[in-house]
Amino acid sequence: MYLKRSYLHHAMAFGFVAALAGIGLASHPGIKSDHTSADVFRGAVQSQYEAAFIANNPLEEIAVSILGAVRYGVFGQAMPGAIIGREGWLFTTEELVTPEDHTQNIALAAGEVAAVHAELAARGITLIPVILPDKAEIYSEALGVARPERVKSRRHRFLQELAAEDIAALDATDTLLRTKDAADAFMRSDTHWSPDGSRAVAHLVAEWVRDQGIPLAPATVTTRAEGRIAFDGDLLRFVPTGAFRPLMGPPQEHITRYTTTVETGGGLFGAAQVDAVLVGTSFSAREDWHFAGFLKQALSADVINFALEGRGPFRPMDAFLASDFLNNTPPKTVIWEIPVRYVSKELRL
């Protein structure tokens, strides 16, 4: 079945190439050719030609889809920024990047966590750093390319740096590896975890809070599944197969949506104390993954969410530390979700 489907994809893709060639004959005269020989060796010519081809093409949207379908279906490649893995898995190249100051940045990131830990401890607040592994680590068998050694050791090195600072951290790797035995722990077409992975890590955090004996104001929490909907991940922008997607892929994903309601003991004269705060990235901020809701359910307590999208893990913590909430109603614990791919970068891009 796989060979038959692969043959069909190739046949359709070559058909697309033939159609594209016909359109290209009309588009080509409008494309300027002023590149140098150095551009050829850097691969710049191909990128320039594709961009000019699309701009001059009378069927621009179709041209983009055809190029994306051929790249994906025939060559098994995405646009720069993503990697086509096996069995419909897509990965971000961001997880494989190793900048020159990789090791120094990891040490700086651990130092940042230690500084936050000290500031919160001075206020009597417990910090729980939750370290999220790379998707490419959890699904290395689907990645299809070798991860650089410095990337493979990044999580361990960061945890070692934290231990040297005497910081206890929760490593979510084993939990996510166990989760994938029963369900996808990450979304196949997205850089983020799935609701199943998110919920499993929420239970890991709750177990740690209970083991540490951190008292949280109790609440009645109810989480309900609201049904499944079609889901298109953020990595699909690197695989623009457009109208050809039903034939060529990537496959359509679906996601279960959840809602969580909280009833606290707050009376008529004010809101109840909220003893837990969540700080982090889009893993925590986006409702698709429902991490804050799953945390509330697992903790049987309300949680205030200070996570932000597109800012990495350190800027949201800066915002929380400067917030009136911290000064006026300090919580008992702060859960800090930190994807490990950020710790080897410049901390505040």
Topology, please?
Layout: H1 2-27, H2 37-42, H3 44-56, H4 60-73, E1 82-84, E2 90-92, H5 102-121, E3 126-132, H6 135-138, H7 140-143, H8 149-152, H9 154-164, E4 170-171, H10 173-179, H11 195-212, E5 220-231, H12 245-248, E6 253-263, E7 276-279, H13 282-285, H14 291-299, E8 303-305, H15 314-321, H16 324-328, E9 333-339
Parallel strand pairs: 3-4, 3-9, 7-8, 7-9
Antiparallel strand pairs: 1-2, 5-6
Helix pairs in contact: 1-4, 3-4, 5-9, 11-14
Description:
This protein is α/β, with parallel strands linked by helices and 349 residues long. Helix content is 45%, strand content 15%. It has 16 helices and 9 strands. The chain has helices spanning 2-27, 37-42, 44-56, 60-73, 102-121, 135-138, 140-143, 149-152, 154-164, 173-179, 195-212, 245-248, 282-285, 291-299, 314-321, 324-328; strands spanning 82-84, 90-92, 126-132, 170-171, 220-231, 253-263, 276-279, 303-305, 333-339. The strands form 3 sheets. A 5-stranded parallel beta sheet has the order 4-3-9-7-8, sandwiched between helices. Strands 1-2 form a two-stranded antiparallel ribbon. A hairpin with a 5-residue loop joins strand 1 (82-84) and strand 2. Helix 1 (2-27) packs antiparallel against helix 4 (60-73). The longest helix has 26 residues, at 2-27. It is globular, with a radius of gyration of 24 Å.
